[in-house]
Amino acid sequence: MRMPSTTQHPPVAREYYVYILTNVHRTVLYTGVTNDLLRRMTEHREQRVEGFTKRYNVTRLVFFESFPDASTAIEREKKIKAGSRKKKWALIEEQNPTWTDFYQSLLET
After folding, report:
1. Residues 6+ away with beta carbon under 8 Å from 16
2. Which residue, among 48, 100, 37, 99, has the nearest Cα to 73 in the 3D structure?
3. Which of 17, 26, 31, 88 has minimal Cβ neighbours within 10 Å of its Cβ?
4. Residue 32 — φ and ψ, nearest 5°?
5. What global pTM score does this model have?
6. How far apart are CA 14 and CA 24, in angstroms?
7. Phi, psi of 61 (to 5 degrees)
8. Which residues 6+ apart lie within 8 Å of 95 measured at CB?
9. Residues of 62-93 as b/e, b for ≥16 C-beta within 10 angstroms?
10. What residues does each domain of the chain span?
11. pLDDT tens digits for the chain (109 residues)?
């Protein structure tokens, strides 16, 4: 009988992202969390995400932050969502004053 391997593999490092999307007119903001930002952004852009973002064509990635664990990312998402529209605008403009869509830069990495 063959014994199972006792080789331990190191844990896979994973990042979690909090992101803010807007539409082309900057009239709508959406905050989300994911463990795969490129995949999630592709889903939003191809309108494979039902609901709010599809209804309002919210596809422009204007803000994101990364975190080493899911609980911290979720906590940050909740804090951003609880903030006023003015606070969200300030957060975006601090990181991205020209409101550039970061999606293309994700494709290049």
Report:
1. 33, 34, 35, 66, 67, 68, 69, 70, 72, 73, 74
2. 37
3. 26
4. -140, 175
5. 0.86
6. 31
7. -85, 110
8. 63
9. bbbbebeeeeebeebbeebeeeeeeebbebbe
10. 16-107
11. 445 545 565 566 689 999 999 999 999 999 999 999 999 999 999 988 888 988 999 999 999 999 999 999 999 999 999 999 999 999 999 999 999 999 998 888 7
Architecture label for domain 16-107: 3-Layer(aba) Sandwich (3.40)
C-alpha 26 chain-centroid distance: 17
Measure the CA–CA gap between 102 and 109, rounded to whole angstroms. Answer: 11
- Give the tokens for residue 53: 């973002």
* 19 sits in which H/E element: strand 16-22
Question: Structure tokens of 59?
Answer: 């596809």
Strand partners, 29: 22
